[in-house]
Amino acid sequence: MFSRYIVPALIAAMSLPVAAQETTLRLVSAFPENNIYVKHLEKWMAKVNAEGKGSVQINFIGGPKAIPTFEVGNAVRTGVVDMAMSTGAFYTNIMPEADALKLTQVTVQELRRNGGLDYINRVWNEKANMHYLARMTDYTPFHLYLNKKIDKPDLTGLKIRITPVYRDFFQAMGASVMTTAPGEVYTALERGVVDGYGWPIGGIFDLNWQQHTKFRVDPGFYNGEVSIIVNLAAWKKLSQAQRDFLQKQGFALEAQNEYWKQYNDEETKRQAQAGIQVIKFDDATARTYLARAYDVGWAGVIKASPQHGPKLRELFGPK
Ligand code: 173
Fold first, then answer.
1. For all residues of the chain together, what is the average pLDDT?
2. Residue 278: which region, alpha, beta or left (left: phi > 0; alpha: psi -120 to 50)?
């Protein structure tokens, strides 16, 4: 009689203090809400919240209307939010090294094997107060999109919308440049404030840029990086079990990166169907174009970070 009721109750009571509480982390996106990366992220968050009941939950606050694109890095650094989906180019105001992530020529899985991700995390911890949880894009080149025709890699007289991703490369080709968040590209194109823009191969339809895009320049260059970053204090405050859970979810997100190959193929076709013409350089010009992209890209990173740039180059380079 006695033990049947009291003992289980005692055990339950004793186990209470050691059972971790559920923690809800607030996440913002630096990309606008109708963008493909947000859609991809939403599926992931649904899975995290389903599997993380009683442990970790993610509360999606919203996109740049909640926190402007170029402020998101600072919001994560200071703990205004716990997590964000962003790209390094949006938080070079915190650490110039962030923009180097566009220069990886190996997959994130290889970076986890070769120590590249550990190195990233050391720098991100120290300089940005962030844990770099997961890279959710790979196999995603950037392109130059234009409304004026060119026949060689010379952008003299053209004004191009950029982020730090493209700055050194487009300027090296003579462009004048204007930095905007993705959310302002449509208006800049519509008003003819810019003659073109940089963006990955996929996603231009999300905000209707195809309506004001005549040409895409091939080949693409670099490797678009979108990732989940976590405020370091919020990360450390989690229990070991919660961290393990969230990191495992991060690995699962990274394991989906092959998805972008198919998506990017579809987007290439969709651009052709929308009447976007391809400006394709001959092989020799394309080779020089690409070599120049990486040369000026790395020169920019190494100039901005003589301390970490050379090591990142070693870790990010082709195998
Ligand atoms: O806004 C951008 O063009 C940009 O920097 C970027 C970076 C990664 C993925 C998509 C866009």
1. 95
2. beta
Distance CA 173, CA 144 (A): 12
Beta bridge partners of 135: 227
Task: Output the pLDDT for position 202.
Answer: 98
Question: Which atom of ligand 1 is nearest to 140's Cα?
Answer: 9
Give the pocket of ligand 1 (CB within 6 Å): 87, 89, 163, 165, 182, 198-200, 224-226
Q: Give dist(CA 229, CA 273) in Å, integer.
A: 36
pLDDT digits (tens, 9 = 90+) for 87-122: 999 999 999 999 999 999 999 999 999 999 999 999
Q: Residue 150 C-alpha to ligand 1 middle, in angstroms? A: 23
CA–CA dist 239, 122 (Å, integer) = 20
Where helices occur in the chain by DSSP H, the ranges are: 2-15, 36-51, 72-78, 108-114, 116-128, 164-172, 185-190, 232-237, 240-254, 259-273, 283-304, 309-316
The answer to whether residues 271 and 203 touch, using CB atoms and an 8 Å cutoff, is no
Separation between Cα atoms, residue 38 and residue 244, nearest integer Å: 24
Reduced to 3 states, what is the DSSP secondary structure of residue 252? helix
Residue nearest to atom 11 of ligand 1 (CA): 199
Q: Ligand 1 center to residue 224 CA distance, Å?
A: 7
What are residue 291's phi and psi, to 5 degrees? -60, -40
Q: What was the pLDDT predicted at 17?
A: 46
pLDDT band per the 50, 70, 90 thresholds, residue 6: low
Give the Cα separation of 39 and 256 in Å (integer).
14
Contact in structure between 142 and 165 (CB atoms under 8 Å)? yes
Q: Which of left, alpha, beta for 190 (phi over 0: left; psi -120 to 50: alpha)?
A: alpha
pLDDT confidence band for 180 (50 / 70 / 90): very high
